[in-house]
Amino acid sequence: MKLHTIDTGFFKLDGGAMFGVVPKSIWQLTNPADANNLCSWATRLLLIEDGNRLTLVDTALGDKQSAKFFGYYDLHGEDTLAKSLARKGFHSDDITDVFLTHLHFDHCGGAIEFAGDKLVPAFKNAHFWSNEKHWQWATNPNPREKASFLTENIRPIQESGQLKFHQEGEKYDSHIDVRYVYGHTEAMMLPQIQYKDKTILYMADLLPSVGHIPIPYVMSYDVRPLTTMEERSAYWEEIVEKDYILFLEHDPIHECCTLQQTEKGIRLKETFKLSEI
Asked: Is the distance from CB of 255 to CB of 5 less than 8 angstroms?
Protein backbone atom coordinates (compact mmCIF):
# COMPACT_ATOMS: atom_id res chain seq x y z
CA MET A 1 0.00 0.00 0.00
CA LYS A 2 1.07 3.57 -0.76
CA LEU A 3 -0.58 6.76 0.50
CA HIS A 4 -0.33 10.15 -1.21
CA THR A 5 -1.42 13.60 -0.07
CA ILE A 6 -3.37 15.37 -2.81
CA ASP A 7 -3.45 19.14 -2.30
CA THR A 8 -6.15 21.01 -4.21
CA GLY A 9 -5.84 24.54 -2.86
CA PHE A 10 -7.64 26.59 -0.22
CA PHE A 11 -10.98 28.28 0.39
CA LYS A 12 -12.34 30.58 3.08
CA LEU A 13 -15.13 30.23 5.60
CA ASP A 14 -16.34 32.45 8.42
CA GLY A 15 -14.23 31.88 11.52
CA GLY A 16 -17.17 32.17 13.87
CA ALA A 17 -19.12 29.54 11.95
CA MET A 18 -16.10 27.23 12.03
CA PHE A 19 -15.70 27.47 15.81
CA GLY A 20 -19.30 27.77 17.02
CA VAL A 21 -19.55 29.10 20.58
CA VAL A 22 -15.77 29.54 21.00
CA PRO A 23 -14.89 33.28 21.18
CA LYS A 24 -12.81 34.82 18.42
CA SER A 25 -10.24 35.96 20.99
CA ILE A 26 -9.43 32.27 21.47
CA TRP A 27 -9.79 30.68 18.01
CA GLN A 28 -7.89 33.44 16.19
CA LEU A 29 -4.74 32.34 18.02
CA THR A 30 -4.63 29.17 15.89
CA ASN A 31 -6.68 30.24 12.85
CA PRO A 32 -6.28 33.98 12.20
CA ALA A 33 -9.04 35.66 10.22
CA ASP A 34 -8.87 38.32 7.51
CA ALA A 35 -10.67 41.68 7.60
CA ASN A 36 -13.94 39.94 6.68
CA ASN A 37 -13.63 37.42 9.53
CA LEU A 38 -12.81 34.65 7.03
CA CYS A 39 -10.21 31.96 7.72
CA SER A 40 -8.35 29.91 5.12
CA TRP A 41 -8.97 26.17 4.99
CA ALA A 42 -7.26 23.48 2.97
CA THR A 43 -8.94 21.02 0.64
CA ARG A 44 -6.46 18.21 1.22
CA LEU A 45 -7.37 14.78 -0.12
CA LEU A 46 -5.90 11.30 0.29
CA LEU A 47 -4.99 8.92 -2.54
CA ILE A 48 -4.67 5.25 -1.61
CA GLU A 49 -2.82 2.73 -3.79
CA ASP A 50 -3.78 -0.73 -2.61
CA GLY A 51 -3.38 -3.66 -4.98
CA ASN A 52 -5.49 -3.06 -8.07
CA ARG A 53 -7.48 -0.27 -6.42
CA LEU A 54 -6.62 3.41 -6.59
CA THR A 55 -8.96 5.18 -4.19
CA LEU A 56 -9.37 8.93 -3.90
CA VAL A 57 -10.92 10.04 -0.61
CA ASP A 58 -13.14 13.08 -1.29
CA THR A 59 -12.81 15.39 -4.30
CA ALA A 60 -12.81 18.99 -2.92
CA LEU A 61 -14.94 21.73 -4.51
CA GLY A 62 -14.25 21.18 -8.20
CA ASP A 63 -14.46 24.04 -10.69
CA LYS A 64 -17.89 23.83 -12.30
CA GLN A 65 -19.79 26.29 -10.09
CA SER A 66 -20.37 29.90 -11.10
CA ALA A 67 -17.96 32.75 -10.40
CA LYS A 68 -20.62 34.17 -8.07
CA PHE A 69 -20.73 30.94 -6.07
CA PHE A 70 -16.97 30.68 -5.75
CA GLY A 71 -16.82 34.37 -4.88
CA TYR A 72 -18.35 33.56 -1.51
CA TYR A 73 -15.46 31.22 -0.68
CA ASP A 74 -12.40 33.03 -2.10
CA LEU A 75 -10.66 30.02 -3.63
CA HIS A 76 -6.89 30.51 -3.64
CA GLY A 77 -3.64 28.61 -4.05
CA GLU A 78 -1.86 27.12 -7.04
CA ASP A 79 -2.73 23.45 -6.47
CA THR A 80 -5.56 21.69 -8.26
CA LEU A 81 -6.76 18.10 -8.17
CA ALA A 82 -5.54 17.43 -11.72
CA LYS A 83 -2.11 18.98 -11.08
CA SER A 84 -1.60 17.09 -7.84
CA LEU A 85 -2.61 13.77 -9.37
CA ALA A 86 -0.21 14.40 -12.26
CA ARG A 87 2.66 15.12 -9.84
CA LYS A 88 2.07 11.67 -8.35
CA GLY A 89 2.02 10.11 -11.83
CA PHE A 90 -1.74 9.64 -12.14
CA HIS A 91 -4.69 10.85 -14.18
CA SER A 92 -8.35 11.00 -13.23
CA ASP A 93 -9.01 8.03 -15.53
CA ASP A 94 -6.71 5.91 -13.33
CA ILE A 95 -8.94 6.27 -10.26
CA THR A 96 -10.89 3.07 -9.60
CA ASP A 97 -12.82 4.29 -6.54
CA VAL A 98 -13.91 7.65 -5.16
CA PHE A 99 -14.74 7.41 -1.46
CA LEU A 100 -16.97 10.32 -0.41
CA THR A 101 -16.93 10.91 3.33
CA HIS A 102 -20.10 12.97 2.90
CA LEU A 103 -21.80 15.02 0.21
CA HIS A 104 -21.25 18.63 1.31
CA PHE A 105 -20.03 20.61 -1.70
CA ASP A 106 -16.47 21.10 -0.42
CA HIS A 107 -16.05 17.32 -0.20
CA CYS A 108 -17.79 16.10 -3.37
CA GLY A 109 -17.89 19.04 -5.81
CA GLY A 110 -14.96 17.69 -7.81
CA ALA A 111 -16.74 14.39 -8.42
CA ILE A 112 -18.76 15.90 -11.27
CA GLU A 113 -17.69 18.09 -14.18
CA PHE A 114 -19.16 19.57 -17.33
CA ALA A 115 -18.71 17.80 -20.67
CA GLY A 116 -20.14 20.44 -22.96
CA ASP A 117 -23.44 21.29 -21.32
CA LYS A 118 -23.83 17.89 -19.66
CA LEU A 119 -22.83 17.01 -16.09
CA VAL A 120 -20.78 13.80 -15.96
CA PRO A 121 -18.48 12.02 -13.48
CA ALA A 122 -14.96 13.49 -13.45
CA PHE A 123 -13.63 9.96 -12.83
CA LYS A 124 -15.14 7.93 -15.63
CA ASN A 125 -13.70 4.57 -14.56
CA ALA A 126 -14.43 4.82 -10.85
CA HIS A 127 -17.07 3.58 -8.46
CA PHE A 128 -18.36 6.36 -6.19
CA TRP A 129 -18.88 5.26 -2.58
CA SER A 130 -21.47 6.75 -0.25
CA ASN A 131 -23.95 5.03 2.08
CA GLU A 132 -27.71 4.76 1.90
CA LYS A 133 -28.44 6.72 5.09
CA HIS A 134 -26.33 9.67 4.03
CA TRP A 135 -27.52 9.54 0.43
CA GLN A 136 -31.15 9.81 1.50
CA TRP A 137 -30.22 12.62 3.90
CA ALA A 138 -28.41 14.55 1.16
CA THR A 139 -30.99 14.08 -1.59
CA ASN A 140 -33.84 15.14 0.72
CA PRO A 141 -31.97 17.89 2.58
CA ASN A 142 -33.12 19.69 5.68
CA PRO A 143 -33.24 23.51 5.52
CA ARG A 144 -30.08 23.84 7.62
CA GLU A 145 -27.92 21.85 5.21
CA LYS A 146 -29.70 22.49 1.92
CA ALA A 147 -27.11 25.03 0.77
CA SER A 148 -24.34 22.44 1.24
CA PHE A 149 -26.02 19.61 -0.68
CA LEU A 150 -25.99 20.77 -4.30
CA THR A 151 -28.07 18.69 -6.71
CA GLU A 152 -25.54 19.11 -9.51
CA ASN A 153 -22.88 17.44 -7.34
CA ILE A 154 -25.02 14.50 -6.33
CA ARG A 155 -27.67 13.38 -8.83
CA PRO A 156 -25.24 12.85 -11.76
CA ILE A 157 -23.36 10.28 -9.68
CA GLN A 158 -26.49 8.13 -9.40
CA GLU A 159 -27.52 8.76 -13.00
CA SER A 160 -24.12 7.55 -14.20
CA GLY A 161 -24.65 4.10 -12.71
CA GLN A 162 -21.31 4.37 -10.91
CA LEU A 163 -22.76 4.83 -7.38
CA LYS A 164 -22.08 2.17 -4.73
CA PHE A 165 -23.31 2.06 -1.13
CA HIS A 166 -21.06 1.01 1.71
CA GLN A 167 -22.76 -0.87 4.53
CA GLU A 168 -22.01 0.24 8.08
CA GLY A 169 -19.93 -2.38 9.88
CA GLU A 170 -18.30 -3.74 6.72
CA LYS A 171 -14.66 -3.25 5.76
CA TYR A 172 -13.85 -1.20 2.67
CA ASP A 173 -10.99 -3.56 1.88
CA SER A 174 -8.55 -5.74 3.81
CA HIS A 175 -6.55 -2.71 5.04
CA ILE A 176 -9.34 -0.18 5.49
CA ASP A 177 -12.20 -0.04 7.97
CA VAL A 178 -14.89 2.64 7.90
CA ARG A 179 -16.04 4.52 10.99
CA TYR A 180 -19.45 6.23 10.95
CA VAL A 181 -20.23 9.46 12.83
CA TYR A 182 -23.49 11.36 13.08
CA GLY A 183 -22.84 14.76 14.62
CA HIS A 184 -21.61 16.79 11.65
CA THR A 185 -24.15 15.28 9.28
CA GLU A 186 -25.99 11.98 8.97
CA ALA A 187 -23.66 8.98 8.59
CA MET A 188 -20.38 10.68 7.67
CA MET A 189 -17.76 8.01 6.88
CA LEU A 190 -14.15 8.09 8.12
CA PRO A 191 -11.67 5.67 6.52
CA GLN A 192 -9.41 4.00 9.06
CA ILE A 193 -6.29 2.71 7.33
CA GLN A 194 -3.66 0.22 8.47
CA TYR A 195 -0.37 1.51 7.06
CA LYS A 196 3.24 0.66 7.97
CA ASP A 197 2.15 -0.79 11.33
CA LYS A 198 0.29 2.45 12.05
CA THR A 199 -3.41 3.34 12.12
CA ILE A 200 -4.34 6.44 10.15
CA LEU A 201 -7.80 7.92 10.63
CA TYR A 202 -9.07 10.30 7.96
CA MET A 203 -10.86 12.95 9.99
CA ALA A 204 -13.02 14.75 7.37
CA ASP A 205 -15.14 17.24 9.37
CA LEU A 206 -14.94 15.52 12.75
CA LEU A 207 -11.65 17.40 13.23
CA PRO A 208 -11.23 20.24 10.70
CA SER A 209 -7.92 21.50 12.13
CA VAL A 210 -5.60 21.21 15.12
CA GLY A 211 -7.33 24.35 16.42
CA HIS A 212 -10.47 22.24 16.91
CA ILE A 213 -8.97 19.58 19.20
CA PRO A 214 -10.62 20.68 22.49
CA ILE A 215 -13.93 18.80 22.73
CA PRO A 216 -16.26 21.88 22.78
CA TYR A 217 -14.64 23.45 19.69
CA VAL A 218 -17.45 22.31 17.42
CA MET A 219 -18.48 23.93 14.15
CA SER A 220 -21.78 25.74 13.78
CA TYR A 221 -22.25 23.70 10.61
CA ASP A 222 -22.75 20.52 12.65
CA VAL A 223 -26.37 19.44 12.70
CA ARG A 224 -26.02 17.67 16.07
CA PRO A 225 -23.27 19.50 18.00
CA LEU A 226 -23.82 17.57 21.23
CA THR A 227 -23.50 14.32 19.30
CA THR A 228 -20.27 15.60 17.78
CA MET A 229 -18.93 16.29 21.26
CA GLU A 230 -19.88 12.80 22.44
CA GLU A 231 -18.29 11.20 19.38
CA ARG A 232 -15.14 13.23 19.73
CA SER A 233 -14.82 12.46 23.43
CA ALA A 234 -14.96 8.73 22.71
CA TYR A 235 -12.71 8.93 19.68
CA TRP A 236 -10.11 11.12 21.36
CA GLU A 237 -9.69 8.58 24.16
CA GLU A 238 -9.24 5.78 21.63
CA ILE A 239 -6.86 7.88 19.51
CA VAL A 240 -4.61 8.60 22.49
CA GLU A 241 -4.72 5.05 23.84
CA LYS A 242 -3.89 3.45 20.48
CA ASP A 243 -1.66 6.24 19.15
CA TYR A 244 -3.57 6.81 15.93
CA ILE A 245 -2.34 9.24 13.30
CA LEU A 246 -4.98 11.74 12.18
CA PHE A 247 -5.08 12.92 8.55
CA LEU A 248 -6.46 16.47 8.40
CA GLU A 249 -8.51 17.46 5.36
CA HIS A 250 -9.01 21.14 6.18
CA ASP A 251 -6.12 22.27 8.36
CA PRO A 252 -4.41 25.06 6.37
CA ILE A 253 -0.91 24.08 7.56
CA HIS A 254 -0.76 20.60 9.06
CA GLU A 255 -1.33 17.33 7.19
CA CYS A 256 -1.23 14.92 10.10
CA CYS A 257 -1.19 15.00 13.88
CA THR A 258 -1.29 12.87 16.99
CA LEU A 259 -2.97 13.58 20.35
CA GLN A 260 -1.93 13.23 23.98
CA GLN A 261 -3.46 13.47 27.43
CA THR A 262 -2.56 16.65 29.34
CA GLU A 263 -3.68 18.41 32.51
CA LYS A 264 -6.11 20.42 30.37
CA GLY A 265 -7.52 17.36 28.67
CA ILE A 266 -6.59 15.78 25.35
CA ARG A 267 -4.52 18.13 23.24
CA LEU A 268 -2.12 18.19 20.30
CA LYS A 269 0.97 15.98 20.61
CA GLU A 270 2.82 16.58 17.35
CA THR A 271 2.26 17.46 13.68
CA PHE A 272 4.01 16.12 10.58
CA LYS A 273 3.57 15.33 6.90
CA LEU A 274 2.15 12.06 5.65
CA SER A 275 5.41 11.42 3.80
CA GLU A 276 7.26 11.41 7.14
CA ILE A 277 5.41 8.36 8.43
From this structure: yes
> pTM (2 decimals)?
0.97
Q: Are 127 and 162 in contact (CB under 8 A)?
A: yes
pLDDT tens digits for range 95-125: 999 999 999 999 999 999 999 999 999 999 9
